[in-house]
Amino acid sequence: MSNLLNLASPAMTPKTYNVAVIGYGMSAKVFHIPLILALPSDFKLYAVVQRSPKANDDAAKDHPGIKTYRSSEEMVKDGKVDVVVVTTTPETHYDLTIQALSAGKHDRRLDSDYLTLSHLIKDQKLGRITEFETHFDRHRPETPASGGWKTKPIPGGGAVYDLGTHLIDQVVHTFGLPKRITGFIGTQRENNTNGYQDSCTVLLHYDGLMATVKAAVVSPEVEQLRYWVRGTEGSFKKFYLDCQEDQLKTGMKPGDDGFAVEPKERYGTLTSIKDGKPVAEICPTVEPITYAGYYRHFANALRGDADVPVKAEDAQAVIRLIELARQSSEKGCTMEVSRGTL
Questions:
Q1: This prediction's pTM
Q2: Mean per-residue pLDDT for 274-303?
Q3: In contact, 67 and 91? CB cutoff 8 Å
């Protein structure tokens, strides 16, 4: 997870915003910097906070001309910084965000498969939805030898915060807040001895609809289920995660030929009721907006031409639902979702 903060006031004429990135790990290198660089008319990679650069891991060498800082305290004093992207480990986000806001800086829904599903629901292709499953499953039964924050029980960590936030956000974005929530949060790995919660299943209860959010590390499948959505008029089943993450990891960038375009063999299956019988057909994935669309939307928001891509109250609601799911898991009961507490 990461936080975006901005200093800039809405501008009457287009401006290129200077971006400072705190942290220089995979999140920065794969999920943020390539997207920032893909929109040169909107953003400039201005600075990176990297505490301990190494010969083979140095932001200054990878991006000649940027400013580098060894601490966020130094960076927030730079008056030329417009936007701060926080990509450090989850337990640091709050303090770094407050630090940036105090210095005058102000603080994901673009997967092509989710956009495809959203179109099907909007166009009533599935009828009234009764079951909605969204998965982020992998088969990684052994604890990573490299360690790192994804193997340690830290505040804001664990599968439900690392992956569940995105999945729950998609459910809430589609259906609104649930009436009740049930959580099953824990570990599936046998050799997990430090209490890190590597897996989660969260049930969001609506009137006439059950949404299931699931992230597992023990799932020996050739094709991992991504979505299974059923309604009165049809169903949609999709395997494989959105391809953008893997492409970014290999060095592909927004604008490259084929970026974010899903191979036909990964298309989902739409089953519709025709003449009283279920009929299955391949459902092509919609033309991708790409993750860069988030930053483009954010730039428009900075200029006063659009709302922010994800509103603060939406993020607050998802975090509150996660905390209720954690309480449910600990107490072994279903929790009521009170609108007054969200």
A1: 0.80
A2: 89
A3: no
